[in-house]
Design a protein that fits this description.
The protein has 291 residues and is an alpha/beta fold. It has ten helices and 13 strands. Strands 3, 4, 5, 6, 11, 12 and 13 form a seven-stranded mixed β-sheet that branches. The protein is globular.
């Protein structure tokens, strides 16, 4: 029912806000674009776009169109993956893949499991480190072939595969924050998450103390569960037993980035491409489900 060709046209219209601009982007006639959308509306039995009146017609998605937007990217990614799997030579070999402990609490296990099912001839060797700097050192010495890490936005030359926001987390019955000296669990330096947390507290005029400094996500989790203080996580990987604390100052966003060491061989390229296509779709779908 949902023809990939029609879905590509639909997403082009949704992104450009115009049938004419979408036609230019896709190299099609405007009548063809209109026909594709009409066929898709007939197939879904829904009106997908609202047309504005005036000299410059703009289109916006309806509620049904918004739902289709969420699904279209995943459908096209799955279609592309299936096409690649059945038309391209199957990669084989091994990949030494690195990531950090916090990302293992997010969508990484799902993505790696699905990659293994689609590429059964590729062997994955998983390396887990404390932070991105350790992984970059391993990439530099070729101890690992590829790595997925959380980075400060625009700080990496790697491929950005997703975005999230950093949030404060606490045990549900912890004392509500005020502008007194709040207890904050921070990582040992140097880490950019530590620096970002302290910076926003200082800029917001929040007094704070650091009763404990931790080396790992697990230690931060246990300290916050014990009520020692507030800790920082990506919103998609808050561990079990903690909840987002919304009254502390807003933290910056975070990029999820894939980097690799030197020229990538076939299995490493296959893994990197798979993560780039699928990681961003697993983030919202699995939000809040990790322990």
């Amino acid at each position: 029912m949902l023809d990939p060709i029609l879905l590509r046209t639909f997403l082009a219209v949704e992104r450009t806000g115009s049938f004419t601009a979408a036609a230019d982007t896709l190299g099609l006639r405007q009548s063809t674009v209109s026909g594709h959308v009409a066929r898709l509306e007939h197939a879904t039995r829904q009106t997908l776009f609202l047309r504005s009146s005036g000299r410059r017609t703009r289109v916006t998605t309806t509620a049904a169109g918004g739902v289709l937007t969420e699904h279209a990217g995943r459908i096209l990614a799955a279609h592309e993956a299936a096409t690649t799997f059945f038309s391209a030579p199957r990669a084989s070999g091994s990949v030494r893949f690195g990531t950090t402990e916090d990302l293992l609490a997010g969508p990484v296990p799902v993505v790696l499991r699905n990659f293994g099912q689609e590429h059964p001839d590729v062997t994955l060797e998983l390396v887990v480190d404390d932070d991105a700097q350790q992984l970059r050192r391993r990439l530099g010495t070729h101890d690992i072939d590829s790595a997925l890490m959380a980075c400060r936005p625009a700080s990496s030359a790697g491929t950005v595969v997703g975005h999230d926001r950093l949030v404060w987390a606490r045990a549900p019955h912890s004392r509500c924050p005020s502008r007194s000296r709040e207890s904050v669990v921070v990582y040992l330096p140097p880490t950019w998450v530590r620096d970002a947390a302290i910076e926003v507290l200082n800029l917001g005029g929040y007094g704070y103390r650091t009763p404990t400094e931790v080396c790992s996500r697990r230690e931060a989790h246990l300290a916050s569960l014990a009520g020692v203080g507030y800790s920082v996580y990506a919103s998609t990987s808050i561990p079990g037993g903690l909840e987002e604390a919304t009254r502390l100052p807003e933290l910056p966003s975070v990029d999820f980035v894939v980097e690799h060491s030197g020229p990538a061989d076939a299995p490493t390229t296959a893994l990197n491409d798979y993560i780039e296509r699928h990681f961003r779709w697993e983030l919202p779908r699995n939000r809040g489900t990790y322990v």
